[in-house]
Amino acid sequence: MTSVTTGDLGEDVRGFAMDDIRRSDREIYDLIRQEEQRQCDKIRLIASENYVSSSVLQATGSILTNKYSEGYAGRRYYEGQQVIDQVERIAIQRAKDLFGAEHVNVQPYSGSPANIAVYLAFLQPGDTILGMALPHGGHLTHGARVSISGKYFKAESYALSRETGLLDYEEIRVKARACKPKILIAGHSAYPRIIDFERFRDIADEVGALLMVDMAHFAGLVAGGAHPSPLPWADVVTTTTHKSLRGPRGAVIMCRQQFAAAIDKAVFPGLQGGPHNNTTAAMAVAFGEAATQEFKDYASQVVANASMLAETLLKRGFDLITGGTDNHLLLVDLTNKGVTGKIAAKALDRAGLVVNYNAVPFDPRKPDDPSGIRIGTAAVTSRGFAETEMFQVGEWLNAVVSEPDNEMLIREMAADIASFCRDFPPPGIN
Ligand SMILES: *Cc1c(COP(=O)(O)O)cnc(C)c1O
User: What is the mean pLDDT of residues 388-394?
Assistant: First the structure.
């Protein structure tokens, strides 16, 4: 949909055609272009973000958004599904092939509803779930008090080791024995290491729990062969499709065949109405892309980039939780640098390095002003950064964290970063 128009409004030669919205709604058009510029000019290091391809963008922006399709292929509640059924079947088949799943549901609107659907499929209100504690890197939907998952269920949590910052499987076993969860949840939003799925399986079996793995963050690495797959071990695997997997905003649930009916019923009619067919098509496109050699190269480069950044920051005296990373993210405790996560994140953003402030395990500070930052390498890898660029990013990060009040330095860096970024045009944006 590359548009080259020379009408009365001048040329619009960017990646995604927006001539019509430019005429009809200048206010929103301008904001989209501003965001596009921001995504070009800044180094995006938020661990859950990425750049989707123009093909994924086009499917997302397609007329499939016009169709209602409550139900599943061949069993819909409205007529006119001749095309949509095919789209959904293809998305499902591609996800099965990509991850080796027995059953796939591609309808969850996003990662949070996917997780809630799993609970709806297997739990009654008041039943026990056991997941990673939110301040240790678990997700809200793994039983946090403020979440429906913590309000409707008896949510127990496991913490990371105080000494190493690693998962302590013996502690998880002890917790599981004590609370006898119906569902044991593995998965995280901020853990820089690989999870031992086999040990989780073993614990789940010992206490008779279902094992659910939420691989929202690292699904792209699994798809690209740069991270072990939880599929052989888990009863149910959920994932968002828009993080390292580089698809549209959405989620899938994968499970063993024996749970297929329960999962499908929980998603619809249990939790949701009609699926977002435009998203389903974009997922199919993204899963097709994720099956290519190019995507495998991307996935291993994401990990190599995170390692390089870790190495650079360690040399500069940064305190990395667990001492490094095996995946796409780093969790940095800034206490020894004399700056809080929030002050650092805000200064870094002004300089053109976008991260989020993040709690570290056993953080003595409050969640809205914690001790750390989280840094991810998926988005920058999608725009072509490799080890050389990650070293430079590490040096920039160090300079800002050392002097977060030096506005002169920050202004100059923002200009340098914007010009540096010009050599790395992101997918989906010209
Ligand atoms: C991001 C994330 C989710 C939720 O995804 P949304 O699409 O934001 O609802 C769920 N679980 C984990 C582990 C995540 O990181």
Answer: 98
